[in-house]
Design brief:
Two copies of one chain form a homodimer.
Chain A lengths: L14 H24 L6 H21 L6 H39 L17 H36 L1 H15 L13 H16 L3 H4 L23 H21 L6 H27 L6 H30 L7
Helix pairs in contact in A: 1-2, 1-5, 2-3, 2-8, 3-4, 3-5, 3-9, 3-10, 4-10, 6-8, 8-9, 9-10
Amino acid sequence: MAQRHPDPTPGAVTGEALAEHLRAQATEFLRALRLHREGGPGADLDGAVRALRRSARRISGSLHTFRPLLDAGWAESVRPELAWVSGTLAQEQAYAARLERLLLALHRLSGTPVLPAQAPGLGGPASERGKVAVGAAKAGALLERQLTLARTRAHSAALRALAGSRFHAVADTVALLAGEVPLTPAAAGADLRPLAAAAEERLAAAVTALPLVRAGHPYNAEALVHGLSPDPSPHPQDAPWHQVRLLLRLHRYAREVLHGDDLTDVRLTAAGQALDRHRDASEAATAAAQAARTPRIAPATAYALGVLHADQRHEVEAARYAFQRSWGRQTVGTS
Amino acid sequence: MAQRHPDPTPGAVTGEALAEHLRAQATEFLRALRLHREGGPGADLDGAVRALRRSARRISGSLHTFRPLLDAGWAESVRPELAWVSGTLAQEQAYAARLERLLLALHRLSGTPVLPAQAPGLGGPASERGKVAVGAAKAGALLERQLTLARTRAHSAALRALAGSRFHAVADTVALLAGEVPLTPAAAGADLRPLAAAAEERLAAAVTALPLVRAGHPYNAEALVHGLSPDPSPHPQDAPWHQVRLLLRLHRYAREVLHGDDLTDVRLTAAGQALDRHRDASEAATAAAQAARTPRIAPATAYALGVLHADQRHEVEAARYAFQRSWGRQTVGTS
């Protein structure tokens, strides 16, 4: 049994804890894969995919944070493959969640459920006020069509990937990892804390570069700036926040290696949830803007998509505010 | 010279101070009217109209708040006429300000100045990304056309009103008021403070009825709720805020009667500005939504108007937040 320290300022946690963590995550990965392959009626395939992604992300994160303690060539070659697995398997669920978020927002904005079943009557002679409701319904139907198609494609791509040789190679690597972790000779007795602290420092540095003062002033109208700009990617302002989201995740995973699952920091969780919401709203806003570029849509549909886009950009701004609030109460430092 | 009390808890201020205030405002009204009629090159006609409205509002407000001290039949007959003057003269400036607000917002949203001069090239073969910029430019041109037309009509209506018999009757009444104020027999020695306090109580009661707790939580997404609803007036939620704006103005005018102009409460000013912003953004959002119902507009134009509408509804929400913040620091009570 490796060392586990519920106390956040423990003595040294060594490479052996890292090896145990990697073996445990690899075992989780293989268990999820078996669950998915066995399938059968009533099998929770979505849950199996989520578990696969969960362990792939954690293995990949540890390979990054604790790289100096691992066989360098091996770690360098495995990480992009795990990222590919995790990314490929994430798409289907992401499209489903994006559609749900957008339909819920349309529902909130229109006061009526916006489901494809609500879309008929589109051809009828609508009064001017009726057109607004029709616009919301048509926007919902359009998003449903586009995102369901994307979801279906992502589903097929994930199935193809899981059946392919590239994935089999990853699974073989993970199976080996479940048995033996390629630590460097010095790693077993090495202290993990400096590497975990370095991950925390990278996070802290990235947070420092965020416009947190501005984000802390509500209604700063920052997220929607240039929302109608001709720039094809009008929101480069989102990128540093997405980057912090990834660094926060790496920091959280490093904490798991050092302290186990049982030391969850509710403030870190809140900050992470705010950044997830930021990412989701950002992508939903982009999907609404893209849908508005569909040729030959009715002006009422385009109008509803414009309102929806702006609504999601304000969600982006709200998420930044929420992050700033939770981060203000953080004690994360570089020590 | 009537009593003036820079101290907010003064001794009695009597009806004579009210009479002096009304005479002074009536004199201001007549001076502004003369300025407007003389006209000539370089004359500040807009300034004259503003001064006319300013004194009309103050006379009307005092007639309301201190009604028991004034000849009842006279006050009842004059107030609606003053409201008509103030309302009729306000329209031109309101349309101009609304257009400016919307064009500034489009500029902020598109990153480029949105002026009619930017609208050419509309017929050219635009790429998908170009359409967004074209959408903003076309939306700006459409709003410019519609609001300039409305402004021109309001200008003509104001000129017609100023030349008509109804206005002449008001001017005659105000001219009489500048000489003699029709106080009731008991009014000259009566204390104004209970009536001013009643105005403050009406304000406090109306504020209490506002959803201030919700408004104090930023990004509550309240202002845009039902923004795509088929309801022709989807924002009845704005009405109580507009009502508080009017009651705040009456309270401010009553303070002017009691203490003169020199006792301005910066917090009251901030609250009033937030409510002005609330009203302006609410009406700008409505104008954007109305423009989107123009027949045969391009989808890109409708999309830009949808973004603009949502942007202004978030301004509404921001204004409520600002009001809540300034009001939280208020010491206004019923004492």
